[in-house]
Amino acid sequence: MRPGYLILINCENEHEIKTRSGRIFYIDKGLYVYVGSGGNNPLVRVFRHLYNYSKYKNFWHIDYLAEVCKPIDAIILSKDEKELARILSTYFTGVKSFGSTDDKLNETHLFKIESLLEFFLIVRILSGG
Question: What pTM, to 2 d.p., does this model score?
Answer without folding.
Answer: 0.91
